[in-house]
Amino acid sequence: MGTITLAPPPTMRELMDEPAFAAYMATPPNTRVDYGRGRVREHPGLTGSAPWQLVVRTDTGAIRTARFDTYTAGYDRFRSMLDRDDVADVTLMARRMFFAPPGHWVTRKFREASTGRVVLRDIWVDYFSWPGFDWCTRCRRPSRFMELPPNHYVFRLNPVMRTDEDPFRCITCGIRFAAIPPNPDLWMIVETES
Ligand SMILES: [Zn+2]
């Protein structure tokens, strides 16, 4: 009997070698959201109560985490972790929001099913992916979704998450694949080009 060995996801250092991904990471998400009729407010999912969490895997396999009130504070620590020899990998994850992969707005024609009219609509088109891996909208990086062993650290960090229903989870943050909104309209986007 052979053993199936799954290729590990790309490390953050490999990802940061890709200019499109590095630009994405370097761009703080816009926390101001237009709720219409001139009401522009701070988004509650990105402000207050430490919306950002750093997950560091050391060279011995230990997991260290830290939470941050702002993206910039988390990103500064993230950068310093990348430079350390005793750090194997690092993730800066959004604790309460889902993020689209790096991409850009494209205007496309759609035919409305109800009226048959052709309308123009802006859609977000990804331009960054890693073959063989799915984008985790919470880790904001390509990851693998699989059934995790009971001793995986995500269950220690978030003990209430255990469930046998739809058990495929991100190996870095533990979010269930089934819990990610399938509709990209519900994801936050980060614009790295104007
Ligand atoms: Zn994840």
Structural descriptors:
single chain; 3-stranded antiparallel sheet; 194 residues; globular; 4 helices; alpha+beta; 29% strand; binds zinc ion; two-stranded antiparallel ribbon
Q: Can you describe what's shown?
A:
The structure is a single chain. With 194 residues, this protein is of the alpha+beta class. It has one domain. Helix content is 15%, strand content 29%. The strands form 5 sheets. The chain has a 3-stranded antiparallel sheet, with helices on one face. It starts with 11 loop residues before the first helix and ends in a 24-residue tail after the last strand. The mean pLDDT is 89. Zinc ion binds next to loops. The site of zinc ion has 8 residues, from loops.
